[in-house]
Amino acid sequence: MDRRALDRLVYGLVWLACFAPLLWLVWRGFNNELGANPIDKLIRELGVWGLRLLIVGLAITPAARLLRQPRLIRFRRTIGLFAFAYVLLHLTNYVVTDQWFDWAAIGKDILKRPFITVGMAAFVLLVPLAVTSTNWALRKLGPVRWRKLHRLTYLIVPLGVIHYLMLVKADHRPPLIYGAIVAVLLGWRVRDWARKRRAALA
Amino acid sequence: MLIRHGDDLTENDVTPQDVYLRRREFMSGLIGGGLAVATGAAASAQTATGLKGIASPYSTKETPTGRADITGYNNFYEFGLDKEDPARNAGSLKTSPWTVKIDGHCDKPGTYDIGDFLRGNPLQQRIYRLRCVEGWSMVIPWLGVPLADLLKKYEPTSKAKYVAFETLYRPSEMPGQRRAVLDWPYREGLRIDEAMHPLTIMAVGLYGESLPKQNGAPMRLVVPWKYGFKSIKSVVRISFVEKQPRTAWNDSAPREYGFYSNVNPTVDHPRWSQATERRIGEFRRRETLMFNGYGERVAGMYRGLDLKKNF
Does residue B308 form part of some domain? Predict the structure, then answer.
């Protein structure tokens, strides 16, 4: 297999892996396998998958550096956009299937429920990143400004974890595990930044 | 301010208007309810664990939630944290033999076999709404006995101001207890008048069969005007006490789960609204009713009590 065909195959697999949770959810939905409260289940699952993909996206850069595989970076946009899609579906399901466009209740939720405030803030911050994901936007902004803007993920992903942590009733373990992974991934960046700075000063 | 208002509140102030206006409809529903029990009993006679119950005027005539949902979607942390966990894991629980310890301020304390504890009390069918604090609800055809009839036999004294309940603690059969998600054993409590209220029952069955383990076998409390977590499952201890007892969820998050935990659409959980609920099996959320729609019968017990403070 030549290199381009292999590339396309790997890319297709990544795409499929990102798409699979959604297909699986839709499949279970149509087969009545989402339990007694399918709306609640769907919203939760979409939210958790959105967070997982955001974390995977955050892991790409360190992985590319540590494994010396710079070409891994090319998956970052796909994964990020899929994360956005899951988060958007998560929010849409809250607005449509859960609240049925009860804007008064939704407005109250955003103002009065800290976990929804935090989740909404994370979503709002995620929108410009999705919008500027095209090659055209990258050119238009220029790489320096584009990179600066996309550092918002360092804020968005922790907000996502906090949103999850705040809504849990008793078992804080899953969001804490995600939080620990995010801490490691952000910690690596802080260390990397400090090292580069030291090198520059030396 | 609210305390000052307390004296001139009438029961009608507390009962939502629509419930109040439907009281005749509620009463006329009894005839239909009786019929449903007759057919239910005929159907259950065919099953090995079939139980029959006398129809009750306290039953709602709303359509009960499907059995699969009632027995497959449970919060019973002793068997795991996911809603599907109890149905999966509760099989390991041994419900026979089963004893209940009665202690505290009563003249006949002791440890009683469940058969003796329940003896002499005909089963009643009580079709009740159940409102979970998480914002979903069901309609459940319980079979049980008024708690008052059970408790009176032990002759509580005048010092018995509250009743405390405990769930079985047996980590070998209750895998969820191996992690300290809550301070085991699960504890609940009621004021004595709440415990003796005719709506309060000790349930031993649902849908014409003995109680499935994931629903709190062999016996559980059902207090339909309070959030579901007050209706403690797999009860092994009942204590008559003078002071308000500790309760599991109140211990775990006192700001979020009060001792009373009456269903109240105007007092939100700190993290989510309690104004609406999703009835399992329905698509659109519905309005939550004050005292879960039982205000006409229970609001009197809380006259003069600030329900915002005593949530």
Answer: no
Using one digit for the tens of pLDDT, what is the confidence trace for A115-132? 999 999 999 999 999 999
Read off the pLDDT of residues A123-181 as tens digits, 9 standing for 90 and up. 999 999 999 999 999 999 999 999 999 999 999 999 999 999 999 988 899 999 999 99
- Can you name the residues that pair with B188 across neighbouring β-strands? B165
Enter the ipTM: 0.87
Residue of A nearest to B137 (CA): A37
By the CB < 8 Å criterion, does B81 face chain A?
Answer: yes
User: Which domain covers residue B123, as residue numbers?
Assistant: 2-302
Question: Is residue B310, in this structure, part of any structural domain at all?
Answer: no
A115 touches chain B (CB under 8 A): yes
Residue B311 lies in a domain: no
Provide, as residue numbers in chain A, all residues whose Cβ is less than 8 Å from the Cβ of B69.
36
Does B285 contact A at CB distance below 8 Å?
yes
- Bridge partner list, B106: B156
Is B133 part of a structural domain of the chain? yes
Domain ranges of chain A: 37-201
Show Cβ contacts of residue B86 under 8 Å, excluding neighbours closer than 6 positions: B74, B75, B76, B78, B79, B80, B213, B214, B215
- pLDDT value of residue A2: 83
pLDDT tens readout for residues B176-188: 999 999 999 999 9
CATH of the domain at B115: 3.90.420.10
- Is B27 or B234 the better-scoring residue by pLDDT? B234
Q: Nearest by CB to A108, which of B134, B182, B273?
A: B273
pTM to 2 decimal places: 0.85
- Total domains in chain B come to 1
Residue B206 contacts residue B212 (beta carbons within 8 Å)? yes
